[in-house]
């Protein structure tokens, strides 16, 4: 059957009472888990894994899948309202969402978030149904050289385009790379930079990093600088609807973010986090309201939100078509399939079309459910803003501690989160960026792993990394971006300045 026939067949499979309830339960649980810092999709999928043993395979997969992209919705809510990311991909939502909430526009910010997530997820599902097999086959030709070029080249590009001075980006990036290699070496098993602390061999938890560096840093800022969390005295339904100006500023961002998210979701590693970061940076350059970035730009919220849901959906293509989980959450889904004797791969669509097309169709249904759920529950989430600081801040800290600790049941993670909270506060105070720390920690281990695998395969020949055709093409693209971007930026700056001067002369002509 062709993709459209397959999608219609999947809808007929998914539109049963049992499967609809499974999608609703997964979406609701995912949203709630996303609101709790530290739970994240990995822990959520692990918690829900026993459900797959009770139900049939498709029902269990629908629950876990619903939870997976439900967390993409819920994790952004605490980022917007309290600047406390629910998980790593939600970090970027706080950059513009939190300033919007502080300015009294929490309702429209959450409305834009819900719409962006729906557009990114739904569009990605439709494209997924059409290109799953062909796109997954392309990934087969990627080896260590290609992945090394992709990860290291992407790190260089992202670090270069994050904005600010060169020092403000490179020093935090170096710190993030150091955090990324801390712990036990995956190949040799030797402990690195642990200084004899046994718990440090686990490495730095991404939950401790996200909560400490972004959440606890914000709490420290509020306490020390006597700031305040955002307040909403009253919120009527009509206040949740974005204005016409918000919609105009968001439309292009939604589709650009969806495209970025879908493309990066096909790649291994922290693709969802990377897609949000790349989308945010792109919107800061081409967004309609880019002059408001850092102060509550709608495009800087809409783009990353659509990107993270699109990436979450497209990341299922390698799992379903190749049997290769490119994230820990998808690895849990793979385990659930194997328990029932189902091996995902190129033959899945023919040997088990009910599961293949039913799961894809359930993603479409789940996105509709999530939109309706989040729009109707926005007033509940915004009510959190009316809690006094002396009650809210201790409660938030307690939730952060609980989330960080329960992720790996480690006191060491609590110490790491607290330390990163203090470090993050001083980094912000002295105008250093926090995002490169996250980038270095996420991507650094991947760069190292692909390099070591490649150097072993090539018997120590370093030219292997640049002589492979695809890898060479990636390096050429990276070089062009790194070299050309400063030139484009300089040209745009001069053009903007010339426009300002021309406008000023027209308004105030000299006598």
UniProtKB/TrEMBL annotation:
<feature type="transmembrane region" description="Helical">
    <location>
        <begin position="470"/>
        <end position="492"/>
    </location>
</feature>
<dbReference type="InterPro" id="IPR002823">
    <property type="entry name" value="DUF112_TM"/>
</dbReference>
<feature type="transmembrane region" description="Helical">
    <location>
        <begin position="35"/>
        <end position="55"/>
    </location>
</feature>
<feature type="transmembrane region" description="Helical">
    <location>
        <begin position="61"/>
        <end position="85"/>
    </location>
</feature>
<keyword id="KW-1133">Transmembrane helix</keyword>
<feature type="transmembrane region" description="Helical">
    <location>
        <begin position="254"/>
        <end position="280"/>
    </location>
</feature>
<feature type="transmembrane region" description="Helical">
    <location>
        <begin position="203"/>
        <end position="224"/>
    </location>
</feature>
<feature type="transmembrane region" description="Helical">
    <location>
        <begin position="356"/>
        <end position="378"/>
    </location>
</feature>
<keyword id="KW-0472">Membrane</keyword>
<feature type="transmembrane region" description="Helical">
    <location>
        <begin position="316"/>
        <end position="336"/>
    </location>
</feature>
<feature type="domain" description="DUF112">
    <location>
        <begin position="20"/>
        <end position="439"/>
    </location>
</feature>
<protein>
    <submittedName>
        <fullName>Putative tricarboxylic transport membrane protein</fullName>
    </submittedName>
</protein>
<keyword id="KW-0812">Transmembrane</keyword>
<feature type="transmembrane region" description="Helical">
    <location>
        <begin position="166"/>
        <end position="183"/>
    </location>
</feature>
<feature type="transmembrane region" description="Helical">
    <location>
        <begin position="138"/>
        <end position="159"/>
    </location>
</feature>
<feature type="transmembrane region" description="Helical">
    <location>
        <begin position="6"/>
        <end position="28"/>
    </location>
</feature>
<dbReference type="Pfam" id="PF01970">
    <property type="entry name" value="TctA"/>
</dbReference>
<feature type="transmembrane region" description="Helical">
    <location>
        <begin position="106"/>
        <end position="132"/>
    </location>
</feature>
<feature type="transmembrane region" description="Helical">
    <location>
        <begin position="390"/>
        <end position="407"/>
    </location>
</feature>
């Amino acid at each position: 059957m062709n993709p459209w026939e397959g999608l219609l067949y999947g809808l007929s499979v998914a539109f049963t009472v049992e499967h609809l309830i499974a999608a609703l339960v997964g979406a609701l649980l995912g949203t709630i888990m996303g609101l709790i810092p530290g739970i994240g999709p990995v822990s959520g999928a692990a918690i829900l894994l026993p459900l797959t043993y009770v139900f049939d395979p498709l029902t269990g997969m629908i629950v876990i899948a619903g939870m997976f992209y439900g967390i993409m919705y819920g994790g952004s809510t605490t980022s917007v309202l309290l600047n406390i990311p629910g998980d790593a991909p939600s970090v970027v939502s706080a950059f513009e969402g939190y300033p919007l909430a502080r300015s009294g526009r929490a309702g429209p910010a959450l409305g834009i978030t819900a719409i962006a997530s729906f557009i990114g997820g739904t569009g990605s599902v439709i494209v997924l149904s059409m290109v799953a097999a062909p796109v997954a086959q392309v990934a087969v030709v990627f080896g260590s050289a290609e992945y090394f070029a992709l990860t290291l080249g992407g790190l260089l590009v992202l670090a270069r385009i994050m904005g600010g001075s060169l020092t403000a980006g490179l020093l935090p990036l170096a710190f993030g790379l150091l955090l990324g290699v801390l712990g036990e070496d995956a190949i040799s098993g030797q402990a690195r930079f642990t200084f004899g602390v046994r718990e440090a061999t686990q490495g730095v938890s991404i939950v401790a990093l996200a909560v400490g560096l972004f959440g606890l840093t914000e709490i420290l800022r509020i306490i020390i600088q006597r700031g305040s969390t955002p307040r909403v005295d009253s919120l009527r339904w009509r206040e949740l609807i974005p204005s016409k100006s918000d919609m105009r500023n968001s439309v292009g961002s939604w589709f650009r973010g969806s495209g970025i998210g879908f493309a990066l979701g096909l790649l291994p590693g922290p693709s969802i986090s990377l897609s949000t970061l790349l989308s945010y940076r792109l919107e800061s350059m081409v967004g309609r309201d880019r002059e408001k970035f850092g102060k509550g730009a709608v495009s800087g919220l809409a783009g990353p939100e659509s990107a993270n849901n699109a990436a979450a959906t497209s990341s299922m293509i390698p799992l379903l078509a190749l049997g290769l989980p490119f994230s820990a959450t998808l690895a849990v889904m793979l385990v659930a399939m194997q328990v029932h004797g189902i091996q995902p791969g190129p033959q899945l669509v023919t040997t088990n079309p009910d599961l293949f097309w039913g799961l894809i169709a359930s993603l479409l249904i789940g996105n509709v459910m999530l939109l309706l759920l989040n729009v109707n529950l926005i007033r509940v989430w915004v009510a959190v803003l009316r809690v006094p600081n002396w009650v809210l801040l201790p409660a938030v800290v307690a939730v952060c501690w609980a989330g960080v600790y329960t992720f790996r049941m480690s006191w060491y993670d609590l110490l790491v989160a607290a330390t990163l909270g203090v470090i993050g506060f001083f980094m912000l105070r002295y105008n250093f960026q926090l995002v490169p720390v996250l980038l270095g920690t996420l991507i650094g281990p991947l760069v190292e792993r692909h390099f070591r695998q490649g150097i072993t395969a090539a018997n120590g020949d370093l030219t292997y990394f640049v002589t492979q055709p695809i890898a060479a093409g990636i390096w050429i693209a990276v070089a062009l971006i790194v070299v050309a971007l400063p030139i484009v930026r300089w040209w745009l700056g001069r053009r903007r300045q010339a426009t300002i001067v021309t406008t000023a002369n027209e308004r105030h002509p000299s006598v």
